[in-house]
């Protein structure tokens, strides 16, 4: 095959450019001649949605992360850090799109679709372990009439202050409590507006993160929120109670085999109560406090959990968020956390300690510092450093809470660093 001469290629390119320029010049109207009428311009897709009362929004969350602990698999890692899971990684944590029409009166609805690494961790139980990096995070129909709003479908939990939506959190990593309590519920919810700034919420659902109910019993939902007229003080309290299979912790579907023992001998009452308070001191500084307490009744005749002398293990978390907006471009967020596993139940299931943690008082503390820089109104760059430390009794064999990132060694100290870009559209 003969190579095309470089000079010929150059000449052909020049001729093509000249021809285009000549054509553009010929297309210009002569002096005094009327310009060609502009092509008709119709409404954009965004205009159509807006005129219909439909809102379309979303974001892309890309993270470069590194950690000295691993969360790959059930027995190897830090189950308290659900979205910081690898020794080193650069990838899309979330690509999320929400379409909603939620009028103050009448019918509406919402759907949120999430793709990326985090989708498997916020995925609700469907009968098998999620592996497709995709999740229908919310999907519900809504009807509002008078002071009442009714929702039927899948919606976010009332527990805690952090949510799956990356743009609504002040840190890159999620708190320890985020991985210990539900993300979403599938059922029915009714909200009664008591005033312009307070609401009462009641509902019934399948339980913690369950599209497919793992048993026949349902979970009751109660909530109340209140705010000052100027929103300088906001208070929320919520409660969930219902019988759940002990083997299934909903948000831990990635951390177990996905199988569920649903006969009565492996079921027990699971309750959680959460209260959080937000205090806005100024335009630059606010403080958020969150406290959550949960219990799980263990089956009396179960041999699987027979090593626990406490028939109703309990665990709770405390978190404080100090958020400082330096100026319109720069901000800082400091998160302090405390996780207490009163009977070692969650640690025996989720950490490398295994059954050695049974009946042991285990405490884990965490400090997270995050810096955010707004490039513009749509793009924020974040950088974060996080340190976790487990305080374990000397009676635990080995006495080490985490597996290191190579999976062969153990440690009581976890550390991670992340850089994130979040683009909203």
Write structural notes for this entry:
36% of the residues are buried. The protein has four helices and 18 strands. By secondary structure, it is mainly beta. The chain has helices at residues 6-27, 45-51, 119-122, 345-350, and strands at 55-67, 88-101, 106-115, 134-145, 148-156, 184-195, 198-205, 219-227, 233-245, 267-280, 285-296, 314-325, 330-341, 362-374, 379-391, 402-403, 410-411, 413-424. It has a single domain, classed as Porin (Beta Barrel). The strands form two sheets. The protein has a 16-stranded antiparallel beta barrel with strand order 1-2-3-4-5-6-7-8-9-10-11-12-13-14-15-18. Strands 16-17 form a two-stranded antiparallel sheet.
Characteristics of this structure?
single chain, 9% helix, globular, 425 residues, two-stranded antiparallel sheet, Porin, mainly beta, 45% strand
Give the topology, please.
Layout: H1 6-27, H2 45-51, E1 55-67, E2 88-101, E3 106-115, H3 119-122, E4 134-145, E5 148-156, E6 184-195, E7 198-205, E8 219-227, E9 233-245, E10 267-280, E11 285-296, E12 314-325, E13 330-341, H4 345-350, E14 362-374, E15 379-391, E16 402-403, E17 410-411, E18 413-424
């Amino acid at each position: 095959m003969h190579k095309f001469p470089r000079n010929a290629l150059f000449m052909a390119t020049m001729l093509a450019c000249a021809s285009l320029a000549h054509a553009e010049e010929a297309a210009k109207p002569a002096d005094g001649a009327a310009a060609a009428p502009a092509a008709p311009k119709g409404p954009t897709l965004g205009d159509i949605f807006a005129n219909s009362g439909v809102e379309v929004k979303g974001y892309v969350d890309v993270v470069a992360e590194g950690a000295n602990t691993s969360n790959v698999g059930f027995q190897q890692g830090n189950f308290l850090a659900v979205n910081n899971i690898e020794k080193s990684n650069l990838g899309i944590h979330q690509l999320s799109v929400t379409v909603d029409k939620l009028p103050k009166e009448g019918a509406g609805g919402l759907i949120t679709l999430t793709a990326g690494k985090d989708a498997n961790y916020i995925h609700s139980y469907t009968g098998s372990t999620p592996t497709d990096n995709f999740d229908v995070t919310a999907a519900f129909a809504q009807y509002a009439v008078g002071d009442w709003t009714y929702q039927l479908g899948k919606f976010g939990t009332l527990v805690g202050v952090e949510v799956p939506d990356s743009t609504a959190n002040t840190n890159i990593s999620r708190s320890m409590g985020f991985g210990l309590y539900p993300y979403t519920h599938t059922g029915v919810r009714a909200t009664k507006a008591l005033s312009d700034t307070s609401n009462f919420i009641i509902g019934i659902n399948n339980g913690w993160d369950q599209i497919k109910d793992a048993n026949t019993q349902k979970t009751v939902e109660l909530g109340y929120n209140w705010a000052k007229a100027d929103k300088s003080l906001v208070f929320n309290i919520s409660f969930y109670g219902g019988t759940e299979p002990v083997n299934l912790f909903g948000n831990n579907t990635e951390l177990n085999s996905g199988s569920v023992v649903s006969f009565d001998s492996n079921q027990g009452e699971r309750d959680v109560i959460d209260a959080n308070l937000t205090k806005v001191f100024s335009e630059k500084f606010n403080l958020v406090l969150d406290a959550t307490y949960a219990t799980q009744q263990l089956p009396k005749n179960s041999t699987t959990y027979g090593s626990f002398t406490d028939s109703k293990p309990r665990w709770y978390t405390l978190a404080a968020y100090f958020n400082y907006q330096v100026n319109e471009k720069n901000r800082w967020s400091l998160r302090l956390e405390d996780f207490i596993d009163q009977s070692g139940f969650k640690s025996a299931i989720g950490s490398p300690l295994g059954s050695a943690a049974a009946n042991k008082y285990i405490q884990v503390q965490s400090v997270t510092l995050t810096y955010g820089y707004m490039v513009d109104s749509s793009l924020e760059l974040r950088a974060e450093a996080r340190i976790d430390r487990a305080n374990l009794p000397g009676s635990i064999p080995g006495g080490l809470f985490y597996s290191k990132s190579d999976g062969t060694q153990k440690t009581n100290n976890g550390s991670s660093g992340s850089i994130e870009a979040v683009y909203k559209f």
